[in-house]
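Q: Joint fold for the lines below.
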Amino acid sequence: MTTTGTDHGPAADRSTAVVRTKAELRAQRATMSGTVAVVMTMGSLHQGHLMLVARAREVADHVILTDFVNPLQFGPNEDFDAYPRDIEGDVALVDGMVDLVFAPATEEMHPTIPPMVSVTTNRTGTLYEGASRPGHFDGVATVVTKLLNLTTPHIAVFGRKDAQQLAIVQSLVTDLDLPVRIEAVDIQRESEGLALSSRNLFLSAEGRRHALGLSATIAAAREAAPSLSGVLDALAAAKAGTAEYSADTTALRFDYALALDPATLQPVTSSHRGETLVMLAGWVDGTRLLDAAVVETTAP
Ligand code: PAF
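A: Joint structure:
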């Protein structure tokens, strides 16, 4: 690892530069020729992030990883202060795999909070995850726009676990004509099924067992497909707490278990056929966890 970098060939088997300021980032970015992909993270990197990095390396000549816990996307009673941070561990994990890590301080990224100008996500940002976390998606859209402006990538790689975020980022790019392609990467799971997330660090061993109700619900929805009513029944049972799981899910409280049209993010109607986005959020021991999958529903 170096604090600044001079070699700007393809990101492979060499030291990763770490920069903390926008000026350093811009200077480093200016030296990159060929295509650039950005992987935006809030740090506490895990295998799921490494899959995003791996995809970025496949599709671009250079990879920039941003590592920033964005205060704009946390509500006043949320876990911003407690959110896990480990910049040194993060850099060690991606050393040699990315060209550059951009890890700014809060004041560097956001000189004023709240900013005088920010991006609003309109109604889509108030639904589902946004209903439980008012302002969350405006905060995400604002920081994503800033990070795109700062890194000027050809491609930005996002995970499918945060399905609503992915849809909103895709709309941000389309609606604001941003010159970047969004590349989506499938959810990575632990061996028992739990979707990888930085927030899993908050779970006790018992909490992890309870959290398995989320991935078990995804599995039940997959099994019920292609029957749309089967998928809806599986989700209703999960939410009502009447689903039969092999895992102990007694302490899992669902916030939502939805079947959505992936194009519009609206709940599917009974006549819907084709791809259905199953989107889940639940609480285990005060930790909010998400899971999602796209299933093909071609029958009633
Ligand atoms: O998905 C995340 O980790 C964050 O929402 C993102 C996209 C890095 C913006 O802060």
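Q: Anything notable?
A: The two ends are 55 Å apart (CA to CA). The CA atoms of residues 8 and 32 lie 6 Å apart.
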